[in-house]
Write a structure and sequence with these properties.
This protein is of the alpha/beta class and 480 residues long. 37% of the residues lie in helices and 19% in strands. The chain has two domains: 22-252, P-loop containing nucleotide triphosphate hydrolases (Rossmann fold, 3-Layer(aba) Sandwich), CATH 3.40.50; 269-452, Nucleotidyltransferase, domain 5 (2-Layer Sandwich). α4 (78-91) crosses α5, α12 packs across α13 and α14 packs across α16 (433-449). The radius of gyration is 27 Å and the shape is elongated.
Length: 480
């Protein structure tokens, strides 16, 4: 999102109280960037541009009659450059109406912070503009710049001179598509209006972004500019770390700006298939149980893994889920009874659960003589669970009995960006409860068995076809 430290010396902007001169800035937009806009560290924004950024800007300003498509890797100043272009547009003409569209309120806040930061760090802009949270007004030109989230009440009545659409690859769903249609169709209301789209590659080739990209790439009315990894401020060390941590297709998508293969964004189809492979040998070992509790909207999931062999191997040998509804909730007493039965059957060494809804359940299980580890969910602990799971899968050190619920959840996981941070999440209307239970069981297994030494690997250790006696209770598909 933001520009990293770009290194190198750059002159500080003049930032004097010279009156706004739209004519000068129309003739030389990069001078506006150099003389007026300031980075957080006090350097001139325009003086710190990489050559490829200058080329993208020069192309955009040389052809004001054309719309602009910027497709860049993550961390390549998309939002900052779009904000700079929008501020230049605001101040270089009379009565202009510029709008920046964002996928949601969080993204809108990030863009607004970037715009407001440019204004607040410039003495000239502070004196010349009126600033509110999502709106900037230039009294001297009668122009306005407004940031709109995709869930804004209505965009159909707008008459823009400029629209900027940020991170279009993240726009999905009926509401976002309607918002896009309202904005993109509105540019026909004002002569000379243009659209600027800034985005990163994605994997969904049925998405709004891919559909539009396919159309504009060869359209003479558009300037299509795609960049690979080229930012001077992105270090090789950072990229090497990301290459180790991320699945290869996600790394290529985020950091090389390559449209990845369709399928699950967190794992490839091949990686998902590798979890459910059968060509492994049974071994004995200790069993561990992961429990993720959801009483109505989410599922309750129980997963038992066996850890054994030398080096240590993990395999999910029992996977059970219960789906409740607001009118027919999963009963915690029944969950407790099932956990106790599974613990006895598999001689479970330790149970791991999230205490959010299972705090009292933890105490009751301990009273029954079972060892329980509570795993509170924070942003950091959740990220660690998924990172450990990813490493197990990528190293082919985790397998499972075939289970359609777990398979569907794994195929539906994706990387999403929230407030500038990447996290793993499921798609709207889907679940990740069985995955969480598997990750909890694997985590406590690795922790408990770490003294055995050696790298982790996965071996087949058996399966389970048990169904509880209360499986027929109601009609909501409990325990499968």
């Amino acid at each position: 999102m933001g520009r990293r430290d770009m290194g190198g010396a750059a002159g500080a902007p003049s930032n004097d109280r010279t009156p706004i001169d739209p004519a000068t800035w129309r003739r030389d937009p990069l001078r506006f960037f150099e003389d007026v806009l300031v980075l957080e560290d006090g350097r001139s924004y325009g003086g710190s541009l990489d050559q490829w950024q200058r080329e993208d800007f020069e192309a955009a300003f040389a052809h004001p009659e054309k719309h602009v498509w910027w497709e860049r890797p993550r961390g390549h100043s998309k939002s900052a450059d779009a904000a700079a272009l929008a501020l230049h547009h605001l101040l270089s003409g009379q009565g202009r109406r510029a709008y920046v569209g964002a996928v949601d309120k969080d993204q809108a806040a990030l863009i607004a912070d970037t715009i407001n930061g440019f204004v607040m760090r410039s003495e000239l802009l502070r004196a010349s503009l009126q600033l509110s949270r999502f709106r900037v007004t230039a009294p001297s030109t009668g122009s306005t710049l407004q940031v709109l989230p995709a869930d804004a009440p209505s965009a159909w009545g707008l008459r823009p001179s400029l629209i900027v659409l940020d991170e279009l690859s993240s726009w999905s769903g009926h509401g976002a598509e309607e918002f896009f249609q309202a904005l993109i169709s509105s540019i026909g209301k004002t002569q000379g209006a243009r659209a600027v789209i800034a985005t990163t590659a994605h994997w969904d080739r049925h998405s709004l972004c891919w559909t539009l990209r396919s159309q504009v790439e060869q359209d003479p009315a558009w300037l299509f500019m795609r960049r690979g990894q080229c930012a001077s401020w992105v270090s090789e060390g950072f990229l090497n770390e990301q290459r180790r941590l991320l699945p290869s297709h996600v790394y290529r998508m985020l950091h090389l700006n390559e449209w990845s293969e369709p399928g699950g964004a967190f794992l490839t189809w091949e990686e998902v298939d590798s979890i459910f492979r059968d060509e492994v040998t049974d071994v004995s070992g200790h069993c561990f149980l992961g429990l993720d509790i959801g009483t109505s909207n989410d599922r309750t999931s129980i997963v038992v893994v066996r850890a054994g062999g030398s080096p240590l191997n993990l395999r999910a040998i029992a996977i059970e889920t219960a789906q409740g509804t607001p009118d027919d909730r999963v009963q915690l007493m029944e969950v407790e009874a099932r956990v106790v039965e599974l613990a006895a059957r598999f001689r479970v060494r330790r149970i791991c659960l999230d205490p959010w809804q299972g705090l009292h359940l933890s105490e009751r299980l301990r009273q029954r003589g079972l060892a329980v580890t509570e795993h509170p969910f924070t942003q950091a602990s959740r990220a660690r669970l998924y990172d450990d799971l990813l490493q197990l899968v990528r190293q082919r050190r985790l397998t499972s009995i075939e289970n359609k619920v777990l398979r569907a959840e794994l195929e539906g996981l994706r990387w999403v960006e929230r407030m500038g941070l990447l996290r793993v999440d499921h798609r709207a209307g889907q679940h990740d409860d069985a995955i969480v239970a598997l990750a909890l069981a694997s985590s406590v297994a690795l922790s408990s068995e770490s003294r055995a030494g050696g790298p982790i690997s996965a071996m087949r250790v058996g399966g389970s076809n048990w169904r509880p006696s209360f499986a027929q209770r109601g009609t909501n598909g409990w325990w499968s």
